[in-house]
Amino acid sequence: MKHSIKYSLIKKDNKTAARRGVISTPHGEIQTPVFMPVGTAATVKAMRPEQVEDLGAEIILSNTYHLYLRPGHELIREAGGLHKFMNWNKPILTDSGGFQVFSLKGLRKITDEGVMFQSHIDGSRHELTPEKVIEIQTALGSDIMMAFDECPPYPADKSYVEQSLNTTIAWLKRCKKAHHNTEKQALFGIMQGGMHYDLRKRSAEAIVELDLPGYSIGGLSVGEPKELMLEVLDYCVDFLPADKPRYVMGVGTPDYIFEGVERGVDMFDCVLPTRVARNGQAMTSEGPLNLKNKRFERDFSPLDHKCDCYTCRNYSRAYIRHLVKSNEIFGSMLLSNHNLAFLVNMMKGIRKSIEEDRFTEFKRDFYESYYGNESGNKL
Questions:
Q1: What does the angle CA 74 – CA 79 – CA 84 come to, to the nearest 5 degrees?
Q2: What does the alpha-carbon distance between residue 39 and residue 62 come to, in Å, rounded to a whole number?
Q3: How far is residue 50 from each of residues 40, 278, 343, measured CA to CA in Å?
Q4: Can you say whether the dihedral through the CA atoms of 363, 369, 374, 376 is positive or negative?
Q5: Cβ-count burial of 1 within 10 angstroms (0-12 exposed, 13-18 middle, 19+ buried)?
Q6: pTM for the full model?
Q7: First-to-last CA distance in the chain?
Q8: How far apart are CA 255 and CA 196, in angstroms?
Q9: Would the CA dihedral through 202, 206, 211, 214 be positive or negative?
Q10: Higher pLDDT, 165 or 99
Q11: Residues annotated catalytic, as ranges
């Protein structure tokens, strides 16, 4: 089957499974490994689309669940699709809403058919099915759409995880059957199976058999210990084909990104950089800084002396601390700009290190500077 996107391998690291590639989409190319800023409700919080593009971001993520509830997928279709609606002309990936439904807990009921849930906005009742999720994402017009899945919690009984896995596989087949706009939109399957090797293997075999243009690893970073997450990720990546993009969903801390890249993952996303920005935290080459700390009150240096972003070129730690302490929205804007620039530039450095066969050294140096050790464990 001809797919709307194509993954091309440029270079493999000589010591690890890290790889440098490019994903070609109808709205442009994506250099990988890539971090995708999250624009849940058709906007990256506290950022203009032009700013996100100027940082070097080549793709953003938006969410089916949230856009379905507000403003509605039919309105976005009427506006000409998500790209036109939000003035973003580069690639867009839309999450199916499976994780959001998982997060609703007491407000939803899962059946073989789909999920009945109450809106977190107004309590109104809705049903999401695999067919409905494809309908919504088709209206949104994203370059990459995700299949509807059930994300089991951690911890969970293996019997429940297996039942959840069977549901996810059945839903994926229905998603593929309902997906007809294959020349313009790519459908990614999602691997589930909790923390169980045999279930992960069965999930991978089922989704790979459908010959999809890309595959994601779901159900990680949901509360499990870091060591267990990496253990599961080790074999999950091996189950997926080398000629298609691999995406770990909801992962955005630098250590998790580096560990994913080292294992051959191509795509990452997380709300982390903008969320911590709204709480007054900056991600810097020397580790996170809490700008609420009094020690920055008279610190007139930039957030990060190694950063050339708009924030670091024009504003001091002292000024940003003043904004944060005063609850001024400009503080969130400046920190969001910087944190996204930090991660985008980190990914550029990762890609260059793979090209030059020095990824291991780059990772070590980054960890020592950011975490103060070589393990990436927070002190």
A1: 125
A2: 5
A3: 17, 20, 17
A4: negative
A5: exposed
A6: 0.97
A7: 49
A8: 23
A9: negative
A10: 165
A11: 95, 269
Q: What is the mean pLDDT of residues 175-203?
A: 98
Backbone dihedral region of 141: left (phi > 0), alpha (psi from -120 to 50 degrees) or beta?
Answer: left
Backbone angles phi, psi at 277, to 5 degrees: -60, -40
Length, in residues, of the chain: 379
Asked if 32 contacts 269 with a C-beta cutoff of 8 angstroms, the reply is no
d(CA 333, CA 200): 40
Two tokens, residue 60: 């953003």
User: Per residue in 219-269, pLDDT tens?
Assistant: 999 999 999 999 999 999 999 999 999 999 999 999 999 999 999 999 999
Q: Which residue has the tokens 């990256």?
A: 44
Distance CA 21, CA 23 (A): 7
Contact predicate 140/67, CB 8 Å = yes
Tens digits of residue pLDDT in 258-300? 999 999 999 999 999 999 999 999 999 999 999 999 999 999 9
pLDDT in tens, 329-372: 999 999 999 999 999 999 999 999 999 999 999 999 999 999 99
Rounded average pLDDT over 132-142:
98
Q: Which residues contact 118 (CB under 8 A, 6 or more apart)?
A: 104, 107, 108, 124, 125, 126
